[in-house]
Amino acid sequence: MDRREVAVFLAVMRLGSATAAAAALGCAQPSISKTIALVERRLGFRLFDRVGGRLSPTFEAELVLEEAMRIEDELSRFDRYLDNVRGLRTGQLRVAATPALALSLLPLAAAIVRKDLPGFGLVLDMQLNHEIPAMVERRQYDLGLAVIPTADESAAVDVVRRGRIVCVSPAGHALASSPAIRWEQIDPAEIIYVTTDARLVALLAAVAPEFLRRLRSATETNRYTIAVNLVRQGLGLTLVDEFTLAGHDLEGVAVGAFEPALNVSLVSVTPPSRKAKTAVRHFLDAVDVVLGSGAG
């Protein structure tokens, strides 16, 4: 499908009729019907069946929908980029971060950057830890923020902060007052397991092999933010990197260092062979302010 065909397809999917799609796109109804027919002929399968005067999506159309919406979003972003170029405005910073950082750290850093650069555009997205470097390398983003084991640091990343894995427990828990917590002190039945990043899971499993042998009744999630909120509800303990807690309301929970120390690094990634934007430096400075003096 070309760009117009994607727009027609999505309009019909959303509105349910060629007439409504034509009105939304500012064209004639026969043009919509002809476009759909041409696309179906070229693809070799039907996208819509006519049912009671409406166009009902086929199974194949439902499969195509998600990818078409992704393409629409990318094209919209590309349009905004072209608009910046057309107006000789390079004032946009695109930042990708892990889900935990995107939900807590990025908004706080963005608020600081907005004060310093009020006319600057910001794109703040959530991406998976292991996918961020490649997306920055492809120049989808100007800056990526991820958390990795300190042992995995390389020349491809810049270290923003070094920290460690911590144990988050309900404020009234027996371990809440412990400044340091060892695996042997934790009841495995209480652990809320976070399985987002294989490297961090391996880091924990290296000192606590039992981490990989979860009970069937265990609570598990792929998001650190969910795990911390489950702890707040008194459903157990969780082990997370300390950067995940930046910007979180820690009322009702206690945070203690996990022993032996499992070192992690908050790292930044920028596109290769390109002079860093001044805004990148502004954003990293803002991250530093948000983190304060808590992490190394």
Automatic annotation (TrEMBL):
Residues 1-58 form the HTH lysR-type domain. SUPFAM superfamilies: Periplasmic binding protein-like II, Winged helix' DNA-binding domain. InterPro entries: LysR_HTH_N, LysR_subst-bd, WH-like_DNA-bd_sf, WH_DNA-bd_sf. The keyword Transcription regulation applies. Residues 1-23 form the signal peptide. One of its GO terms (molecular function) is sequence-specific DNA binding. Pfam families: HTH_1, LysR_substrate. One of its GO terms (biological process) is positive regulation of gene expression. Keywords: DNA-binding, Signal, Transcription, Transcription regulation. Belongs to the LysR transcriptional regulatory family. This is DNA-binding transcriptional LysR family regulator. It comes from Methylopila capsulata. The lineage of its organism: Bacteria, Pseudomonadati, Pseudomonadota, Alphaproteobacteria, Hyphomicrobiales.
